[in-house]
Design brief:
The protein is α/β, with parallel strands linked by helices and 355 residues long. The chain folds into 2 domains: 238 residues, Aspartate Aminotransferase, domain 2, CATH 3.40.640; 100 residues, Aspartate Aminotransferase, domain 1. The protein is globular and about 65 Å long. It binds pyridoxal-5'-phosphate (PLP). Keywords: Amino-acid biosynthesis, Aminotransferase, Cytoplasm, Pyridoxal phosphate, Pyridoxine biosynthesis, Serine biosynthesis, Transferase. It catalyses: O-phospho-L-serine + 2-oxoglutarate = 3-phosphooxypyruvate + L-glutamate; 4-(phosphooxy)-L-threonine + 2-oxoglutarate = (R)-3-hydroxy-2-oxo-4-phosphooxybutanoate + L-glutamate. It is found in: Cytoplasm.
Amino acid sequence: MKHNFGAGPGILPQEVLKQAAEAVLNFNNSGLSILEISHRTADFESVVSEACSLVKELLNLNDDYAITFLHGGASTQFAMVPYNLLGEGETAAYLDSGTWASKAIKEAKFFGNVNVVASSKEANYTYIPKEYSIPTDAKYFHVTSNNTIYGTQLHEFPESPVPLVSDMSSDIFSRVFDANKFGLIYAGAQKNMGAAGVALAVVKKELLGKIERKIPAMFNYQLHIDNGSMYNTPPVFAIYVAMLTLRWVKEQGGVAAMEKINNKKAATLYAEIDRNPLFKGTCAVEDRSRMNVCFVMDNADIEKEFLDFAKKADIVGLKGHRSVGGFRASIYNALPQSSVDHLVSIMQQFEQLKK
Ligand code: PLP
């Protein structure tokens, strides 16, 4: 068995993989593969509707929200958010907390004015900026809840005078938060929610239809919502895997249960990073992510040796992103505590080896 610490696509529950594999051969005992069924069938319509209900239930959303599954990954959402919410000449506020946030900022500039209220770029995004004010005339305030590359996370969301929009690609369904405080939430599925190829958007309905601009069909939230995520051929298999993953989250006890498990995993790993003299964390302690744990070695010359040592012990996906270096252990929902314990024991064995 491999211990998959990869950042994205990330680890999925074994049960989900088995069910998805079965459906590739024979979906719902139809004698057809999920890959060859029409999306306009009652069977698939019920998959989409169950996926939407699970999102609503797991996030405890009230009826002000619409849920839709879209193509194009989270990166398309960087453009789709301002396309739909930011009129020409209007301003949106953004928090620049990492590479993905800065890409979202870049896209928003195509549509209107962007006010970057704070940035931690000068410190290579090792912390979450906290000293800023949100302009009350902004159309929305955009934050990245978890910075996958740098391993920082917003542990508390700001009180915002304007609709709060969040990219939650790498921590959705991993912790409890009040989703009803948000104007819009989006997430690529391939970390905590399923396979690559689909993104989730949770949209407060009242925010739509407020700008003059004409929006091409594939970028128009309202159109996708009105068509039940089936304006065109949806990413059928990716939506199915997302539905299975959401079912699995519910079976584990929902988001609160996931949070408890995730907190324990993160605490175990950070404790070892702080104890083991060979390793050190890369981010401000108070902003450490409970999904992507970034760390380096005091002696960078032996990092490669540690990676090889870990690889021999069936640990995969541990190499850090090139902009941070070192290691990144992604400990998404589906990663069991036993994999974290295994990594810790390998770090301890390596310590002994180097004594
Ligand atoms: N936002 C965050 C926080 C991410 O971690 C990623 C990918 O890792 C993206 C956006 C981009 O997602 P996609 O590749 O689905 O466009």
